[in-house]
Design a protein that fits this description.
132 residues; mainly alpha; 4 helices; 64% helix
């Protein structure tokens, strides 16, 4: 994680310089603001990765003599089947459609979003998947 933290810190420095150059040269506020916000995002990610790298063991990406196989292994648990993202996606699509069509559509999309989030969070606390 150390190398990723350094990469994002260098990226944030580059974005800061480019934001200053762009702002002075173009005098255009929207692009300058976007570049400064990108700088802020890059420095937050870089600080987080650098901060976390001090507290976890060194990974294979931090070893210059590591092979690709050294980073192999289990990455985590991923749900093999779930209908909850479908309900969440339909509810989210209706919610964003409400911005264009009318705010009344939020009355139909909010329950779908809430059902999707609730079902996704508590998916492994009930039913046949309770033991996983």
């Amino acid at each position: 994680m150390k190398i990723q933290g350094k990469l994002f810190m260098w990226l944030s420095l580059f974005l800061l310089v480019m934001a200053c150059v762009y702002g002075l040269w173009s005098k255009e506020p929207a692009g300058t603001t976007a570049l400064f916000l990108a700088f802020g995002l890059a420095i937050m990610v870089g600080f987080y990765l650098g901060f976390t790298a001090r507290r976890v063991d060194a990974g294979a990406q931090d070893n210059k003599n590591a092979d690709v196989a050294d980073d192999a292994g289990e990455l985590g648990f991923f749900s093999p089947h779930s209908w909850q993202p479908l309900a969440l996606a339909i509810g989210g699509a209706l919610a964003f459609t409400a911005i264009a069509v009318g705010w009344w559509l939020l009355y139909f999309s909010a329950p779908l979003v809430l059902i999707g989030v609730y079902g996704w969070v508590f998916e492994y606390y009930r039913g046949e998947n309770r033991t996983q």
